[in-house]
Amino acid sequence: MATSVTVKDVCPQEFIATYARFLKKTGRVQIPKWVDIAKTATYKELPPSNPDWIYYRIATLARKVYLRGGDGVDTYKKVFGQNRRNGVRPNAFAVANGGNIRYCLKQLANLKVVEEDTVKGGRIITATGRRDLDRIAKQIFDKKNKQ
């Protein structure tokens, strides 16, 4: 009998990596020209070392919207934020750049994975997005059980 597998049932790192590879392979995500020079936050000194970082950020946001819908860009700026190093002064928390997050959410909306919640605000997962993410989670689960 077939079991129902959701995103919650698989390892987050494996899911994000698999979904990022899927997004890159399909070619439906439009990558901006600034992706190779953009930093993910103002407190970072360098851009990400992984050239496919935008796919991983999109996959991470899809998973986060799946698990807890209704959050907006400001919430995700806090989620991806870190401590800013202030030299000899104490570290202080700083939020991530909202432009990257907003762009990733727009790409997910173009893919019909997420949509804006008109009642409460923020982003929620669509039925198509839930089906696609659960399908990828099922593939990961079956591959892991086969081994």
TrEMBL record:
A GO molecular-function annotation: RNA binding
Keywords of the record:
Ribonucleoprotein, Ribosomal protein
SMART domains for this protein: Ribosomal_S19e
Biological process, per Gene Ontology: ribosomal small subunit assembly; translation
SUPFAM superfamilies (UniProt xref): Winged helix' DNA-binding domain
Query: What Pfam family does this protein match (any one)?
Result: Ribosomal_S19e
Q: Which GO terms describe its cellular component?
A: cytosolic small ribosomal subunit
Supply the PANTHER family for this chain: 40S RIBOSOMAL PROTEIN S19 (PTHR11710:SF0)
Instruction: Please give the family membership noted in the entry.
Output: Belongs to the eukaryotic ribosomal protein eS19 family.
Please state what the protein is called. Answer: Small ribosomal subunit protein eS19
Q: Which organism is it from?
A: Polysphondylium violaceum
